[in-house]
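Supplementary Methods, section 5.1.

A reviewer requested that the exact input to the structure prediction be made available. We therefore reproduce it here, unchanged from the version used in the analyses.
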Amino acid sequence: MQRCLDSVRSWSALQGYEYEFMDDRIFDLCGAEYLAGVGDNKRSITNLARLELARTRLAQGWERVVWLDADTFVFAPDRLTIDVTKGYAFAKEAWVWIDPQGRTMTEQGVHNAAFVFAGHHPDLDLLIHAIRHIVSTRRIHASYQVGTKLLVGLQYSLDFPVLTNIGMFSPDVMSAIALGQAPVLAALARASGYPSFAANLCLSLNGGMTREMIRTAMDRLETSRGQVVNQYLGGGGSDSVAATVMPARGLVSQSFQLDSPLWLLTRSARLLAVKLLPASVARMLRMAQAHLTREVISPQ
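The structure derived from this sequence is encoded token-by-token as follows.
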């Protein structure tokens, strides 16, 4: 964790930014009513507190606020830029995990471990109000209710851009980096579509990793300046993609595209194939339909 904090502090100095570290005092920004509503759910507390802090600093005259979670590691500081000078952006997420059957699964979304607000924006008030409203009127059974799932749902309607260069590395991705598991890293690169120069390491989840494995993964990220992952991007690795901000256009996870015309077409063809075509063809159509729902990569 300290290594992550040091990397962000050094990157801030390199960019000429003022750096501020916030400890648990940030929770006070939520207020007693909100804290009572979420209990000891630290993630739900932070989901609101980070936005309240951003609004407070902007009201004090700060030009921009860039938030990075404490377990965010900047491993290519000279390449990481936040090119948002108007409006705001949260970070694009490509979540990769190994399911109980040993398959590599991917899902796209938005994460709030990194975001930027360039000046005050009405949507900041909207997000804060929405989170407070949900907590005051609903039973909170998971931090995602007022975190990443909320952002994914709102992104299509609010149409905000997303940062493409700050990833979200799950415990399974961190293990793959430490152990050199190319199929998992290739799945991450394919789902992300952009190079990562920093990433949230999900240290609060752990996933059974030892400290030594985490250190090994961080060493490889830092030594390669991200190429341990970015090398699997199409067209020659991280140098092939220059964009740091994806334009707003409604980022939708593959997992929720169940009513697309192509999905419906494969569904209809599959039902027809069950009766009229050989089992092998029906099986191929079933696999195509599953791919349109969620990308699945069989273990190598």
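The longest strand covers residues 104-118. These observations are discussed further in the main text.
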